[in-house]
Task: structure prediction
Amino acid sequence: MFTHGASWDHKQWDKQVEYFSKYYQTITWDVRGHGASSLPNGKVHAEDFTKDLIGLMNHLKIKQAYLCGLSMGDTFLYKQPFIIQNT
Result:
């Protein structure tokens, strides 16, 4: 699962997806307020992005994943410790 940096969108990872999709299922997504995603009214915190990622994984029935992020895309993953292994 690839998470883009601030002011980017999922297309940031096109070249990496082209390579890694030969070996893995690859998923890119737009963080709140970026690309095709909306931005709700009010404040948004890094923990909200983390919850969005977990929600996406649950929706797609992904029980475990390798995560790759750049800049903001990896920062919020470490702000709230969690294990990407859904049941």
